[in-house]
Amino acid sequence: MELLAESIRDAPVAALVGFRGVPAAAMQRMRKELRGRGHPIVVAPNSAIRHALQAAANERPSLRPLLDHVTDQTAVLVAKGNPFGLSRELDETRSPTPARGGELAPMDIVVPGGTTSFKPGPIVGELQQAGFPAAIEKGKVVLKKDTTIVRAGQPIPRNVATLLTRLDILPLEVGLNLRALVDGETFYAPDVLRVDLDALRARVAGAHRLALGVALDLAWTTPETTPLLVGRAHRIALAVALEIGDISKVTLPHLVGRAVRQAKAVAELGGN
What we know:
By secondary structure, this protein is of the alpha+beta class. It has three domains: 2-94 and 175-195, Alpha-Beta Plaits (2-Layer Sandwich); 109-171, Alpha-Beta Complex (Molybdopterin biosynthesis moea protein, domain 2); 201-271, no CATH class. Helices cover 47% and strands 18% of the residues. The protein is built from ten helices and twelve strands. It has helices at residues 2-10, 24-36, 46-59, 83-91, 123-129, 158-166, 190-193, 197-217, 225-244, 251-271, and strands spanning 13-18, 41-43, 74-79, 95-97, 109-111, 114-115, 134-137, 140-143, 147-150, 172-174, 177-183, 186-188. The protein has a five-stranded antiparallel β-sheet with strand order 2-3-1-11-12, with helices on both faces. The protein has a three-stranded antiparallel β-sheet with strand order 6-8-7. Helix 1 packs across helix 3. The chain is flat. It starts with a helix and ends with a helix.
């Protein structure tokens, strides 16, 4: 317990993760992978984790909010680096898994309508009894429409779970679930850390393009805008010089080319 308290107290990032439903073999693999990245996970009884957190919080008070998140099956993870990156790493440990019955649906479970792989027979009655809109059409078992078979937060009946598996619908996820995290002196709830980095990058890129457009309209010189402003000024000056027929080393090739094109056009008109 003392070693756990020291590791929690001294780590830049201390997190609590849940591992309910994770098979032992998968848990060992995840722990090995995360340990290789410098993120060791310690599994201990909740009472030991609470004692370790209380001891560590006496010297590092920012850890105290973690005590409220020691529930169910809990492990301690200590790490270095960006907490948002750590949250993403933990999300990547999650994978779809079938329901066995009795679990709470994490979201609405929607069964799409259409033709199934089932052959006509007793399965039609089983589907109908479980609430699936099943029927036989042209010798095939079909589900007539998209159906929300279990609402989010409701228990998944065992017969529904069996049929979902047979339909190759995996409504649950198994993996490590980030409960809470402390980075230095800052406490983070998991919903704060779940950031869509791709969408964030797209928004930042869009904002950059808009800001650049405004800066160019204002002719605001910066290391980024100066090359673009010079290029635009060159194009405008060249267009004006060509319009008034000003001869220079830059305009002469353009003027000669334009004269040749005009001469060819006149010759073609004369030929007609």
